Request: fold
Amino acid sequence: MQKRLAVTGTSAGRQRVSTSQAPWLDGVEFKDACFAGVRFPPHFHEQVSIGCVESGLESLASGSRRMVVPTGVTVVIGAGQVHAHSAVDDQAAWRYRALYLNPEVLLHRARRLGLLQPGPVCFPQTLLEDEVLRQLLRQLHDEPAQRSEARVVALVDRLLRHQLTGPPKDASPMDGVADFLRTQATSPLRLQALAARFHRSPRALVSAFRRRHGLSPRAFQLVHRINRSRALLRTGAPVSEVALDSGFYDQSHFVRFFKRYTGVAPSQFQRGCG
Reply:
């Protein structure tokens, strides 16, 4: 049985964003976007992102790597992987379509297929030249009436061909800092107190945290607030309440940062989640 998808969009000149969500597999999310003159700052997602550039050229930065993503290449961004992207040419429009999946979905399928070795599922390549995977992603976007859990699972199974499993990263004190920032996401960040809590100077803490997580503690907390707000918006809570519950000073600050990191206003994102 085909499940209902809610869709929203916004457009301004050559910019357009539409999102949709289905309840299968813990909430599969689809995104179709076209931007011109927009640069997304370094951020991360709680989900695994599988996307493809449909027109234009994307500039993608992940860690120390800077890549130009041409049309037709599939991009895989792991959960928690810090990245930033924009059009190569600020004057040219850049369109991409993406699918967001809970990482537990990949773990479950990898176990079912007998592909999971000790360690987390990860992908050694960010850019994948896999025409079958690209066509599966394109079909899910081009044929919304035919979207189904089975089609998404087929895409996941194909994607897992590219996985690499390995031992987990060595533990770091900065992981404890990240966990603390998550639990304190709605509280103001006081760097001096945070550094004292973890027995570092503020400068040493920021430097070590950035090396480990790719963002400063302040930026990490901000991105976590944005991700938290996305979950709250899906519940249908008023935008003003979501702003405060996510740790923002007021609604206008929330709207500005949410749009900066997602390309769509909170109210428009909420309508898309139904």
